[in-house]
Amino acid sequence: MTFSHPTRRKTLQMLGLAGAAGALAPNLLVSAAHAAPPETPTGQIVVGFSQEPTVFNPLMPRIEVDDGVQFSLFDPLFRVDTQGVIQPALAAEVPTVANGGLSEDGLEWRVKLRDDVTWHDGTPFTAEDVKFTLELVVDPNFRSWRTLGHNLVRDITVVSPTEITWRMEETFSPYMSILAETFMVPKHILEPEADRNTAPFNNAPIGTGAFKWGNRIAGDHLELVANTEYYGEGPYIERLIYKYIPDLTVLYTQFKSGDIDIAGVQYISQDNYAEASKLPGKVVNVVPTATIESIYLNMGRPQFQDPAVREALYAALDKQTIIDALYYGLPTPSETYLPKQSYYYNGDLPPHEFNIDRANKLLDDAGWARGSDGVREKDGVRLAFTNSTTAGNHLREQTQQFVQQTFKDIGVEMTISNLPPAVMWGEYWTMSQFDTVLVGITFMSGADPDVSARFHSDSIGAQGGKGANNGQYVNEEVDALLAEGAQTFDPETRKPIYDKIQSIIRDDLPMLPMFQYATVRGHKEGIMGIEPNINTRIDTWHAAAYYWDK
Amino acid sequence: MARYILNRLGQSIILLVIVSIIGFSVLHLTPGGPLSQYALTPGMTQEAMDRISEQMGLNRPLPVQYLDWAWRLLQGDWGTSYRDNQPVLDVIGRHLFATFLLMGSSTVISIAIGTWIGIRGATHRYSVFDYTATVGAMIALSIPTFWFGLVAIYLFSLKLGWFPAGNMYTIGDQSVLNYLHHLIMPSVVLALVNIAVWSRYMRTATLDVINQDFVKTARAKGASERRVLMKHIVGNALLPMITLAGMQLPNLLSGALVTETVFTWPGMGRLFLDSLGYSDYPVVMGLLMFSAILVLIGNLIADLVAAAIDPRIRLA
After folding, report:
1. Cα–Cα distances in Å, from A392 out to A265, A387, A417, B256?
2. Are A94 and A19 in contact (CB under 8 A)?
3. Which of A167, A187, A460, A545 is least surrounded, with the fewest CB atoms within 10 Å of its CB?
């Protein structure tokens, strides 16, 4: 199964339908060729994860496996479907200007909620819970995952148990996608707690999701049980088990032996793809993800000030060989930071060409002359820098050695300097202490193409900024376009803005885009309802729809 | 004797303080920290990281953080895991059982078999058995455990289907038989290396006493060969083994990282690695103190037992 790339027209139609599509959405998820899901939840499915989910308060900082579990336990107001369309979840409809949910200027929000939702303890879910959640995420005493967007919300008013309104300090269209990643938490459980950071809820969560908390054996597995009162589609299985298997080889072995039913994050390693695809009784697919592998340049360094240098480095990057030789040909080359499946992907960017001669000529023309040691130099700046990534990531380390060779051919000296993960992604990365970094980043936030946190000049941590512009990229035009893109909710109006941003960044090359990742995913034959979704971080985003076809 | 114990206890407490200061400093001075795992999370910003770091008290001066931690520890509060949000002692306790089960069974197997091989190797020196045991031990010691583990999984799980490929039990079936079924492969794989170790120690220890005068005297007195072996040779050869066994106590509870990983056994070794990877300071410090205490207790017990058995130590 691969991703069908929706045509522009089709996507726009679906976006237009967003408000009304709620009732149709479940049908899209189940293929008609197989037996219907069972009437009552039946059987169990074991999903193997190579990291351990440990964060169960969905508003606290989390990694992707935590996301995977939280999607089963909780619901947001909206969720993003496989086509990138925002669908109602706990909300009755997605607010638009047309249905009166949004004011023309995007500042006034009115969200109608479902009236048939209860928490796992039987208490009804109401607008009070939404208000509590939106206030808790910006509570200065609470260890909130993120406040972006939420910090613009003012005057939250509960109109009725099924209706809530608020005002935004400024128009911020990515907020719709942010809400799609904000799980609602129960007011009646958390409000009485003096310290929400350490509340018992955080280890025995109560949500509205398709599965209820069962029990957890720390370091081993987590058992969730079907919520038979669930308002939405499913659940069709009685028990959903997330099993922690800390090693990818072992994860794959247990997938082969049948100990786990689904090989979840970090999936099957690429070198096992050929064998895995031939395993009897197993379904193995290549699924693209939103993560883009690139070489991040620290634009604060003198070596990277000259655009000719960045262009030459890009031309000296033999992407295809790296993809074929190291990644088994699975990822696809990329010119931008957005995945090809995104509605906002710009497909008209100039294609990359690996050309050492051109790269050399670019540098010669720009006046970078080779020194006695073969390394180019101009105005006292040597074209020499370090490249860092997580130590022990073999594919990345081999990629570095390969890049090192082709860079050497154009008179550039790249020294490999890798660090253990906690060091690499600590201040070394967040405070831009690196020269260049080989990194895979998901730039989208949900389905939203806003990259202000990554490319806006206000977002440079090393310069006191608030975001994650770790490459210290500054471009006034991009700043203006990012602001403009966040001002409007209409996808058709936003698309050209983000096309333009991608085009400028492709010209500026603050990061040298390499490829879009593809993962090898596997599950046992007979498991139905698995649907990859480029707009979420994890494959279990919709475990409610899983069932056994027997 | 009481004075001896008190002396040892005093030394132990000073050692613990030193260990804690060094451990705390090294851990906190290492670049990175508990928040770096979130650095690549989509939507994560420097502002959010700074805010959370402030809330967690991570930007206080290091000595303040240490004193705060140590003061709480003295009051019996081992802290709360950053990763898991649970009390450190609970976290350790939950992994302790798994480790104890695995290490306990493998230690019993390895001591029993290793001692037997060692004695037999020494009493039948340069026999086929001795050579086979020596070569076998060298092989077992030089081949990494994970290789044994993976081969065992390949053979006995994937090909023959005799044993499960890993895990402590089948989820949903927590019967004793199910635990045993899962326990056999990892404990035998782990025991392989330890059998080699124990057999080598035991062989040397036995050879040390086998030609001593008191053994000759025993034989001259007309004691049966069996009595000479069991009482005079083995009895004395086991003495250094007690010290070794005492030093094994921390190993017993600190887990076997590699075996635990290969067989997805939720024990202490993996907890330590995971906590280190996440910079989960409270748990890492908890584990450090826990194993430091075990080392000290293990050595103390070994010394006391040795003193009880061997009057020369007591007198010294």
Report:
1. 18, 14, 12, 21
2. yes
3. A167
- pLDDT tens digits, one per residue of A140-173: 999 888 888 999 999 999 999 999 999 999 999 9
Q: Report yes or no: B178 at the A interface, CB cutoff 8 Å.
A: no
Q: How far apart are CA B105 and CA B110, in angstroms?
A: 9
- Tens digits of per-residue pLDDT, A220-246? 999 999 999 999 998 999 999 999 998
Kindly calculate the radius of gyration of chain A based on its CA atoms and give it in whole angstroms.
Answer: 24
Sequence-ordered list of residues with C-beta below 8 angstroms from that of B211, at least 6 positions apart, any chain: none
Q: Within an 8 Å CB–CB cutoff, is residue A54 touching chain B?
A: yes
User: Buried b / exposed e across A251-270, counting CB within 10 Å, b at 16+?
Assistant: bbbbbbbbbbbbbbbebbbb
> Distance between CA atoms of B242 and B234, rounded to whole angstroms?
12
Residue A466, chain B, CB below 8 Å: the answer is yes
- Tokens representing B246 are 């005492």
Paired tokens of A397: 């380390």
Burial of A210 (0-12, 13-18, 19+ CB in 10 A): buried
What are A78's strand-pairing partners? A88
Asked if the C-beta of A176 comes within 8 angstroms of chain B's C-beta atoms, the answer is no
Cβ of B43 within 8 Å of Cβ of A61? The answer is no
Q: Crossing angle for the helix pair B62-74 and B2-29, nearest 10 degrees?
A: 140
Question: In DSSP terms, which residues pair with B170 in a beta bridge?
Answer: B173
> What would the two tokens of residue A166 be?
């608020």
Helix ranges (H only) for A154-247 are 175-179, 187-190
| Mean pLDDT calculated for residue range B60-84 | 92
Residue of B44, B86, B277 with shortest CB distance to A146: B44
